[in-house]
Amino acid sequence: MNTPSKLTPEGKKKKKKSNKKKKKKTLDEHQATPLVVAPTKPLPDQRFPGGEIVEYATKVDNLSRTTAEEIRHLSIVNNMDDKFLNDYRKAAEVHRQVRQYVQTIAKPGVSMSQLAEEIENGVRTLTNHQGLETGDALKAGMGFPTGLCLNNVAAHWTPNPGGKEVILQYDDVLKVDFGVHVNGRIVDSAFTVASNPAYDNLLAAVKAATNTGLKEAGIDARMDHISEAIQEVMESYEVELNRKIVPVKAIRNITGHNILRYKIHGDKQVPFVKTQTNQHMEEGDVFAIETFGSTGKAYARDDVGVYGYGRNEHASAAGLHHASAKSLLRKIDENFGTLVFSRRYLERLGVKSYLLGMRSLMSSGIVESYGPLVDVPGSYVAQFEHVSVTHELKTVQYVDAVFDIDRSAPTELQGSDFSRGRLLSMQGLLAIRTRLSKEWFLFLASTVIRKHLDRHRYIDVTAVRYPMLQESIYKK
Length: 476
Prior knowledge:
Layout: H1 68-79, H2 82-105, H3 112-127, E1 140-150, E2 153-155, E3 173-182, E4 185-194, H4 200-216, H5 223-234, E5 238-241, E6 244-247, E7 249-250, E8 256-258, E9 269-270, E10 286-294, E11 301-302, E12 308-311, H6 323-335, H7 343-348, H8 355-363, E13 367-370, E14 373-374, E15 381-391, E16 394-398, H9 426-431, H10 438-453, H11 470-475
Antiparallel strand pairs: 1-3, 2-14, 3-4, 5-6, 7-10, 8-9, 8-10, 10-15, 11-14, 12-13, 15-16
Helix pairs in contact: 2-3, 4-5, 6-8
């Protein structure tokens, strides 16, 4: 039988007191008494759970301990998720396959228009985005117009519609520079082709300098240190031209650079001549490590012509009056955004009679134009470039041969990702150890360990720490 609840003077029901006894806190279910169980045993993969994150209590901006710099850094690191890395890996693989194909056809007699068309068609095919529908080119495709620069032209030359056809000759030095993007993640890489062996030392100097920059790159690496190392390597080379010994010089006013999303040039620079700067690399940075070596004055100046155009995202279109300029700007925003594009890209979309509108956009500061950069006539310039992504305690580099062990690798590994240095980690080495002789395993393990001990680049900090462990690892 239910007994009626007692009423208080205010007419409210009085709550009954609970007679339940509170449970006493006990030890963790995995722990014993006395304490003998190590905390790592019950945890899968020995990964400890995170603690509670508490924001700083103060709301006064000038007293806040979470600075804008910390917030900026955290936003960059948090952005480096699996999708970020997968986009870059896809763009890098597309670039690798296209440039390998281009190296087979970049021979004397080929025209620059044909080369540009082959490169751009290859990129659009492999990314599966032809860029003809509105907005499709923003999903994936060309990161910027194909650069095909001959001899003293250092950078920023591309064939334009209606221009004079240029044919590659035996004595030419050709720089091929193109970019691939996937969801705005741009991979920028370049190489130099020369059929005449007289230029071999010039190419070797610039390639060695670029590889030096890649090896020096990493979290907290200082630009002044990287630039000094690059210049020292490049300018240790000489080349014999017309029976004269000519030193290879690093071009002073072109630099490597960081890459932002949908923007090929960020706000950080990697010079390749000794310089004084406080800039350094940070976790989450994406850098285009590129070097230019010249037999001339080693100073690039602007030349006539137009390489491409880029949208200034900070410029307002409020002052535009010409209908042609407004229509052209809408086409640019819908198909390129802040990606650099060329005249060929506009005409491919069916845009016609755009020069007047483009002139209006340029005079308003909404669009910027880029022209060729050249050294003195009669000189020769070479270029090599690759992308470096700084992540955690390692640098992921999308290059063909950082360690150049492909020539001497075992037959079963020649041409593989491992021999190109992409899987040069202890984890990758252990995965294929059954395919290697003991001697090859120990040699490659030594390479990994040396790179690990050299400022912890290339491999995870949980990998092997001392050379004496090589033997025991192989036995496992």
